[in-house]
Structure formats: structure tokens, C-alpha cells
Amino acid sequence: MPLGRKPFLFRFQNGQLKRIAFYTDCPHCAQEIRAAEKYMGAKVACKFCNGALQFVESIAMS
Ligand SMILES: [Zn+2]
After folding, report:
1. Whole-angstrom distance, CA of residue 39 vs CA of residue 35
2. What was the pLDDT predicted at 45?
3. Centroid of ligand 1 to alpha carbon of 13 (angstroms)
4. What is the pLDDT of residues 7-45, one digit of tens each?
5. How far is the CA of 15 from the centre of ligand 1 (A)?
6. In contact, 35 and 55? CB cutoff 8 Å
7. What was the pLDDT predicted at 47?
8. Cβ neighbours for 3, distance < 8 A, ≥ 6 positions apart
9. How many whole angstroms separate alpha carbon 18 and alpha carbon 56?
10. Where does residue 10 fall: left (phi above 0), alpha (psi -120 to 50 degrees), or beta otherwise?
11. 36 CB contacts (<8 Å, ≥6 apart)?
12. Do residues 4 and 59 lie in contact, with contact meaning Cβ atoms separated by under 8 Å?
């Protein structure tokens, strides 16, 4: 199950789009996880099941 397949969350800031967070499903417990963009590439633990996760950027940014 690829991580990061859901759209990133954007908001307008001075007319520009800015990525602030992203959503994915935990591969262990299938709970939806929202993570701040600063955690991209980081190894973290799922807050629901404590399973190990690493967020990877799998969506091509255009
Ligand atoms: Zn989990």
C-alpha cells in the first residue's frame, strides 16, 4: 500500500499555494493519519497503533 496517495492539503497564502500537511492511511491499522509537511521523509510512529511509518513523497508535484 503506497503511502501519500491522498492529496496534500493546501491553503492560499499571499496568492500562492502552500503545502501544510498531508493525509495518508496507516498500513498497519488503516486509520487515516494527518501529518504536518515537516514530517515528510521522517520515520514516525502511528498514533493509533504505534506502528512504524516513514512518509515518502509519492505524488508528483506540478
Ligand atoms: Zn496505525
Report:
1. 7
2. 93
3. 32
4. 555 666 666 666 778 788 899 999 998 888 888 888 989
5. 36
6. yes
7. 93
8. 24, 25, 27, 53, 54, 55, 56, 58
9. 18
10. beta
11. 20, 21
12. yes
- Cell reading at 44: 514516525
pTM: 0.58
Q: 62 versus 53: which is more confidently predicted?
A: 53
Q: How far apart are CA 46 and CA 17, in angstroms?
A: 28
Q: How far is the CA of 43 from the centre of ligand 1 (A)?
A: 13
27 vs 16: CA distance, rounded Å: 32
Helices (H) and strands (E) in the chain, counts: 0, 5
Q: Side by side, which strands form the sheet with 32-36?
A: 8-13, 16-25, 32-36
Cell numbers 487515516 correspond to what residue? 32
What is the distance in A from the centroid of ligand 1 to the CA of 16? 33
